[in-house]
Structures are given as structure tokens and as C-alpha cells.
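Lab notebook, bench 4. The sequencing result for the construct came back, and we need a structural model before the next group meeting so we can plan mutations. Quick request posted to the team channel:

Model the 3D structure of this chain.
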Amino acid sequence: MSVTRHATAVALTLAAILALAVPAPPLGALEAIRPAELPEPPGYGVDVQPAPVILSPYLGLFATQDKLYDEVGMTAEYNSGLFRMYFDLSLINDDKYEPEEPYMLGHYFNLKQGTIEFNYRPISLLFGRTPHRDKVDSPYTMFISSWDIPATILSLNYEDSFFFYESRWIGLNRNSKWYRTPEPIYEWGNEQAPDVFDEDDLDQAGDVDGDYFYFRPLDRGANYKVYGIKLGDWRLGFQESIVYINQSFYPEYFLSPLPMYFTQLVNSTGGKPWTQIDDENSHMGFFVDYTEPRYPNRYGYLQFIMGDINLNFLAPDHDLQHPNKWGWSLGGARDFTFGRLGLYHAGALKYTFAATSANDRNYSLKRYEYTYYPAVEYLFDGGRRALDYRDNYIGYLYGENNLAFMATYEGEANDFQIEGSAEFVVSGSKSPANPWHEYRGHPGRYGEGKLFPLLDESPLEKTVRFSSAIGRSFGPWDLKASAMIGAVFNELELVMAEPPDGETFEDELIQPKLYKPGNNNRLLFEFFVGARYNIGIRPPAN
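Done. Here's the predicted structure in C-alpha cell form:
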């Protein structure tokens, strides 16, 4: 017998002897023998009523114009009011990303949501991976995309009857492996590679473009803030966001209520005992909305965003070297006896969400574009695949250089929830990763300066979509079906930038591609049918 087993046997024997020698007191006598000076066991600081645990397995079947696929998953929720935990995890085989394991029959894990939330009104704290939304209720929001992209966030909220405030950190790329996004900042071995880096800082990209070495991308993070007041049925809010590199979390941006633009300006300007690297990209803007809670309910809003803050359009000489980076969204909805109708419009100028810094030898010196990833392609099955830009923009889902229009309907008939929409979108070239597209700096330096660059090319991509959905609950069952049909003309495709007339690019200059209208037209179609079953595990009755 080993020493460990021998010691365990001795301990169990002594415990048995003591149990036989000292009879246990009856349950009712426990309070009587506890010394009076000992404190009572601690209780809850807040009266919390236990709630059911809700488990909801679900299955969805999809058909599109070019493939069939399925999704099977599970949601789980516990919500006591003060504390809420929620997760949504599924397996899907839509051929969008690679499976994590070879035995998964083409499925990969889809981490839709995993969050913890504390609500002690008027304060709430939420953290984890989750789709997150803008403060404005619209399909076209400017600061945070309405495309429901899961991201790691930490959000602090306060809201009373007059004032509201939110500070949100958004996790971007961190501790990256460059071969997953094979777009080099510098190619090792030529004059673009700075001398301050060693080969230990490099990562090999594989065989995509030969045996090249690439610098790993820097860590990136983002913060978003909202400050606002309520005046009756009106809300007025100031919004601000910032993307930074060299770190994934910037504590001062999250903790301090000071506007982040001024924090960046002060912390990165010289003439102080310590100065930090200036590697940040700011967006500022505002919204105003109106909600009439009485029937018929009405809602209307206006939202504006500005990047690279400047008022050059007011200057007498019009500084064309710095084109404006503006985006806007407006719309509203109203209840009628037959349902709720909504009308929405949005647009963004050509370079609104892109990075800004470039020179004649390098497409981008600072990878702080307003996106989750500093890339437009990723490796899939040994080759390059275009990244759907709607899966990448932190802000407005259609990104730069476009106009969008949508009409929506929501209604109810015989306990069925019915939704529908019609949308038209027109887009030109865009690239958050390649700051000025074909130019190696501000377009004004090349005689192409425009204060409001928008859709200034031909052809343009045109997209039309019609969608509808119907759903109903039967006891623990939730059922839903939806369909979309449409068409896209001169569809955007990834292409290399071509130098402007009279300019040449260095042969060795490697740069990210542009999304540019092409010659392909195609029909769009998607059909979905799904079911979810809700299981409640209730706490025992007192």
C-alpha cells in the first residue's frame, strides 16, 4: 500500500471512531448548541428570487441560390432579475468557415452568444461574447452595425428618467497569427521592412505567395460611448467611438467619462513628462429620436457620424487633401390598424470607415480601420477567400460609398407574427483596409480632391431584396419560416488597386484588395425553416 493510500485509510478509520463515540445532536438542537457570540451566516445583500433555467434546443434548415445547409444548436438562460446568464452555441455547415475537427461532417462551431449581465437599476453591467447594437433603433445604424456580429464586449450602462450613459469596450484582434489573414504590412527583405524588428517578430505565411515572412498584426481594440438626455418623448445623444492599435484594451477610454477624442489628443501630444504613440482613429456624431408611446405609436430618428474630425468644408480655400468622412441615417415607423410600417434611408461617403495613414511606399502605416479585422481576405481550404464586408464593419453594415433604402412591415394575424421588407442598395468601391484605394495618400495630393466623394464611378453595384417571415409559438414550441428573393447587378468583387494615370506602383508593393463593382449579375435567394423547443427547469417550491 502506498503512503498516500495508508494515510487515507487511517483518516477514514479515525473519522469512523469519532462518529461512533460522539453522537450527532438532533437537527432541532443545532441552534441551541451554537455559541451566542458567533455571527449568523451571511445572507444575500439583495433579495433575489430564484428563476427557472430555460434550455432551448433548436434546428434550422436553409436553402440558398447555391447550397443547402443546416444548423443545430442550444440556448440556455438563467435570469433572476439581478443576474442573467445566457449562451447560444450551434453547429452549422454553411461552408463559410472551416470545421475545427475533421469528424464534424463539414460543420463548425458557431459561438453566437455567451454573456453575463448584472442589473441593479438604473445601473447594468454586461460582458462576454454577444451581438451588440447601437442606441438607435434602425436597420441602418452608424456606430454599431445592425448585422448582429458577435464580439467580446464589456458594457457599463446607466439610465434614469432624464440622463443616460454607456461606456462599451469592444474586443478586436489580439495575439493574432498572420497566416489566417495573409495581408502583409511589410514584406521581409525589402526596403519597406523597418530595421527595428528582428526575425523573431515574424511569422511565416505559408505557400499562399511563396515563402515570404510577414509581421504579425498588432493588437487592436475599440471603445464606444453614448451620452444623452431625455426631454419628454425626445432623446438627444452624443456618440463617440475610437479604434486603437498596439493594445487590445485601453483602460482610460473605458473608465473615464471624458470624450475620447480629447483624451487621445492630450495623451499623444509632446511637451509632457510622458507621451504615448498616436495610433488611434476617432469617430464622433449624434442622434435625435422621438418615441410616442400612445397608440398609434410613432418613432422617428436622425443619426450622423463623422470620421477624421475636421470642418474643412467651411474653410475659404477648401482643403481638398482631406475629403470628408461622413455617414448618416434617418427614418421612422408608425402603427396602423393593419400593422406597423417603417421607412429608412442611410448612406456614407467613400472613405468613412477606412484608415487614413499611407505613403508612396506603403498602403497603410496604421491599421486602425473601423472593422473587427484589418483584412479583406482570409485563408480557407488552402486558398484565399473574400471576407463578406458585412461581417467586418463595426459600424454601418454596408460600409463606405453607398446609399441604402428600406421599407418594412410588422404585423400579427391569428397569433402569427408577420414581417416583411423591401430594400434597394447602390454601392461603389470600398476598402477599409486600403485607406485611399488607388492613391498612396490623400486624393487631393493627386489632383482628385473632392469634399464629398460618393458613388463617383461607373458601373455601380445595385442590389434589390424582398424578404418576409412568419412565426408562431405553440406551447413550448417556437416555429419560424422566412424567405428572401432578390438580384444583384455589377456585384462587388475583390480586385487589386490600379494606379491612377501617370502613376506606377512598385512591383514588390503588396497591398490589400478593393471591393469594386464588377461585371457579374446574379439572382439572390434564401429560404429558412426552423423550430425551437423551450424546456423550463424550475426551482423547488418552498
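The domain at 121-176+217-537 is CATH 2.40.160 (Porin).
Will bring this to the meeting.
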